[in-house]
């Protein structure tokens, strides 16, 4: 049932007309694609946007996470971690089953009862202050793959309700077998629901065992020895195996709450137990609208408002940096006498920070960063630091005849500085990567720069220093017939899985190399090795026809 409902909601979001509404009106179009590390918007216009109202979407998770982190930053550390696990044999579930049915046959009943229990626990902890006055709280439902859901409540208590001593802890938390005389009902519940294992030497095959030890460190040794033991799962267990619990919450049920409400509310006397949910509900509260970092000025305005006290205008909000300028620039001022030098060094640091986020300092309207201050050789230095494995050099001796011919031909062009492009063709498993590693190791051993790229991240990761082609060559997001990209000096370039790449990406690299070398020949001055298999995956053209997909392949390129 839930899968059908979720599928219908996903179908609504996948409708292009609805996507237009979500993207343009609710998320400011292209800005929304720049969140969660999509700093260059590589997926702009290609993915389906799920709003924060869709349970489990990235935006929903992000909103909940930011809310929880804000509570901790504002109110301090947590005081209580309360867990409630769904029990398929709750009386409220079993009494509604038809003859021959099990709780697994009626997920609708289980879900409704669990939801009612969740709301009831929320009311007990937050509204009724079971542990005292709550300053802030958060909760999450974990849906297990092979079991029923369970709930985690995180409570931050008011200063008047903080736990300050041993007596306070013993008042609300117990990790011992209860006294059967004082609590006639509680011992049965603890033995049934709150006993861990047994594991360890008593049961080495328990699911919690990891490397011969219990992942949860049971049995706990720092427990009082009062002589009580219970026989569970054919083993005698004592206090060391008790999972911490709150006695009052463990003994609660919807029936006991019904009794309590009848004691406290005179109007509750008019309703039967089965009529109770029809007249008592919980109201939802609203919260402040979430602001995504990709929204730019609106997000930074929210940040400033959270840190600047008593601003009188938008201009006064922008003066927060002046208060900290001397402290932040102290190191540069001590080592550089010129104010211009200090300014350029600060701009350079800002440029590096912004670049690490995938953006350009020139887009922010700051002062001009002089060419002398730019770190042109950072990537070049990184490429020179790429080492080689001696094992890869030994691969040269084990190449077959065809591989040796290709290796010698390519290496001769690298050594003699003769630019030429090669294509290594072969189905998967024909040792193309084996040849690439041998070439990379040999060129690196000669002190030259050789870089390895691939269309996919997985293919790039198995080669030394491998990166995706878009990252390595700075290929523009929007490819056209006149696009160019940024590039550095190398002697050998390997581009694997090129069959998956649209031809415009390769042509963009070709135009960039021609511009650098001042030559109109294809890849002039560079030894290019393309590899791939056109029998496998072709370039992805969204909703493209067979002709459009074929036209996007490298086979249709002018190269």
TrEMBL record:
Q: What cofactor is needed?
A: Mg(2+)
What is the taxonomic lineage of the source species? Eukaryota, Viridiplantae, Streptophyta, Embryophyta, Tracheophyta
The organism's superkingdom is given as: Eukaryota
Q: Native species of this protein?
A: Panicum virgatum
Q: What region holds the Helitron helicase-like domain?
A: 1-155
Give a yes or no for keyword DNA repair in this entry: yes
Domain DNA helicase Pif1-like DEAD-box helicase residues, every copy: 399-558
Under the heading PANTHER family, the entry gives: ATP-DEPENDENT DNA HELICASE (PTHR10492:SF72), PTHR10492
* Protein family: Belongs to the helicase family.
Question: Is Lyase among this UniProt entry's keywords?
Answer: no
Q: What EC number(s) is this enzyme filed under?
A: 5.6.2.3
Alphabetical list of InterPro entries matching this protein: DNA_helicase_pif1-like_DEAD, Helitron_helicase-like, P-loop_NTPase
Might you name a Gene Ontology BP term for this protein? Answer: DNA recombination
* GO MF terms held by the record: 5'-3' DNA helicase activity; ATP binding; hydrolase activity
What is the reaction catalyzed?
Answer: ATP + H2O = ADP + phosphate + H(+)
Q: Which UniProt keywords apply?
A: ATP-binding, DNA damage, DNA recombination, DNA repair, Helicase, Hydrolase, Nucleotide-binding
Which Pfam families does this UniProt record tie to the protein?
Answer: Helitron_like_N, PIF1
* Name of this protein: ATP-dependent DNA helicase
């Amino acid at each position: 049932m839930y899968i059908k409902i979720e599928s219908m909601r996903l179908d609504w979001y996948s409708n292009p007309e609805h996507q237009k509404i979500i993207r343009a009106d609710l998320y400011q179009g292209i800005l929304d694609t720049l969140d969660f590390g999509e700093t260059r918007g590589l997926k702009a216009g290609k993915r389906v946007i799920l709003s924060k109202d869709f349970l489990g979407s990235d935006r929903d998770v992000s909103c909940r996470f930011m809310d929880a982190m804000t509570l901790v930053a504002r109110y301090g550390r947590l005081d209580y971690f309360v867990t409630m696990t769904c029990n398929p044999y709750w009386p409220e579930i079993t009494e509604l089953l038809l003859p021959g049915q099990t709780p697994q046959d009626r997920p609708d009943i289980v879900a409704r009862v669990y939801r009612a229990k969740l709301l009831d626990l929320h009311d007990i902890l937050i509204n009724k202050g079971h542990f005292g006055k709550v300053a802030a709280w958060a909760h999450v439902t974990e849906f297990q793959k092979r079991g029923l859901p369970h709930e985690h409540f995180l409570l931050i208590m008011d200063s008047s309700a903080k736990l300050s001593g041993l007596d306070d802890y013993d008042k609300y938390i117990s990790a011992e077998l209860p006294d059967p005389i004082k609590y006639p009902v509680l011992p049965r519940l603890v033995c049934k629901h709150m006993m861990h294992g047994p594991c360890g030497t008593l049961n080495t095959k328990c699911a919690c065992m990891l490397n011969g030890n219990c992942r949860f460190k049971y049995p706990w040794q720092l427990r009082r020895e009062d002589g009580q033991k219970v026989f569970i799962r054919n083993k005698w267990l004592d206090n060391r195996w008790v999972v911490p619990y709150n006695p009052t919450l463990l003994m609660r049920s919807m029936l006991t709450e019904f009794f309590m409400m009848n004691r406290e509310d005179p109007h509750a006397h008019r309703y039967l137990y089965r009529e109770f949910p029809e007249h008592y509900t919980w109201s939802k509260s609203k919260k402040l609208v979430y602001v995504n970092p990709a929204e730019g000025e609106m997000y930074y305005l929210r940040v400033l408002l959270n840190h600047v006290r008593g601003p009188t205008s938008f201009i006064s909000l922008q003066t927060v940096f002046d208060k900290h300028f001397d402290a932040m620039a102290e190191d540069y001022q001590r080592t550089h006498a010129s104010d211009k030098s200090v300014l350029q060094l600060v701009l350079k640091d800002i440029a590096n920070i912004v670049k690490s986020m995938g953006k350009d300092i020139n887009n922010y309207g700051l002062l001009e960063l002089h060419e002398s201050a730019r770190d042109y050789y950072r990537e070049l230095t990184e490429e020179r630091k790429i080492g080689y494995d001696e094992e890869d050099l030994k691969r040269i001796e084990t190449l077959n005849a065809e591989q040796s011919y290709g290796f010698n031909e390519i290496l001769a062009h690298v050594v003699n500085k003769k630019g030429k492009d090669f294509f290594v063709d072969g189905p998967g498993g024909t040792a193309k990567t084996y040849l690439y590693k041998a070439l990379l190791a040999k060129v690196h051993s000669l002190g030259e720069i050789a870089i390895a790229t691939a269309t996919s991240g997985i293919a790039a990761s198995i080669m030394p220093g491998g990166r995706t082609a878009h990252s390595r060559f700075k290929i523009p997001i929007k490819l056209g017939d006149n696009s160019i990209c940024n590039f550095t000096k190398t002697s050998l370039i390997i581009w694997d899985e090129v069959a998956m790449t649209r031809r415009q990406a390769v042509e963009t690299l070709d135009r960039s190399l021609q511009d650098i070398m001042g030559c109109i020949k294809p890849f002039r001055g560079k030894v290019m090795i393309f590899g791939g298999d056109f029998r496998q995956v072709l370039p992805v053209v969204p909703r493209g026809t067979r002709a459009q997909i074929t036209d996007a392949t490298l086979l249709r390129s002018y190269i």
